[in-house]
Amino acid sequence: DSGVTQTPKHLITATGQRVTLRCSPRSGDLSVYWYQQSLDQGLQFLIQYYNGEERAKGNILERFSAQQFPDLHSELNLSSLELGDSALYFCASRGGNTEAFFGQGTRLTVV
Amino acid sequence: AQTVTQSQPEMSVQEAETVTLSCTYDTSESDYYLFWYKQPPSRQMILVIRQEAYKQQNATENRFSVNFQKAAKSFSLKISDSQLGDAAMYFCAYRLYTGKLIFGQGTTLQVKP
């Protein structure tokens, strides 16, 4: 158990819909990172938050947004979903150490 | 921009044998971290080993070791005494100072009994 919790584990939704993925970081970790892993591919960085503020952005679509709340949990919002958005979405958290700890991911299927 | 390349999409090894997975990267930074992550069928991302660029000594974690060649920008993973549970996809990753990870495309390792 990495200590990072992601909910839900699985999500099936229709095109055009909006979903929210949730991430609770390890206790004390201020940084949260979101990654997208499409089928059998590497992980692509989406966005990073540190203590409630956006720190870095990757190739995140305009239809996607995220935020980190005062209790440090983070949410990734995906809207106007398309079939190509089907993927595994990972959250990772990092504290003062050097490595990130990953949640188990949310598998999103858009039908 | 930093890039990470894994040139072996698939590898196979006989149980109890040794296998080496290759990774090269490109960066202009002098201080950074490199990682190998394992992703089994459960899809969980599991840290296997990490290497700090300023350390010349290669990292070792039990049966896993790396060959870090900083000048060549090469970071290979050696798995000794391979076990069936080692079968997974392995990702090489470079960490920027922000903590963001840049991943390679992955190598699928098959372990044959």
What key attributes describe this structure?
heterodimer, A: 111 residues, mainly beta, seven-stranded mixed sheet, globular, B: 113 residues, six-stranded mixed sheet, four-stranded antiparallel sheet, 52% strand
Tell me about this structure.
The complex is a heterodimer of chains A (111) and B (113). With 111 residues, chain A is an all-beta fold. Chain A is built from no helices and eleven strands. Chain A has strands spanning 5-7, 10-13, 19-24, 31-37, 43-50, 53-57, 64-68, 74-78, 87-94, 101-102, 106-110. In chain A, the strands form two sheets. In chain A, strands 2, 4, 5, 6, 9, 10 and 11 form a seven-stranded mixed β-sheet that branches. The radius of gyration of chain A is 13 Å and the shape is globular. The mean pLDDT of chain A is 94. Chain B has 113 residues and is an all-beta fold. Chain B contains no helices and twelve strands. In chain B, strands 2, 5, 6, 10, 11 and 12 form a six-stranded mixed β-sheet that branches. In chain B, strands 3-9-8-7 form a four-stranded antiparallel β-sheet, with no helix packed on it. In chain B, a hairpin with a 2-residue loop joins strand 7 and strand 8. The mean pLDDT of chain B is 94. Chains A and B meet through strand 4, strand 5, strand 9 and strand 10 of A and strand 6, strand 10 and strand 11 of B.
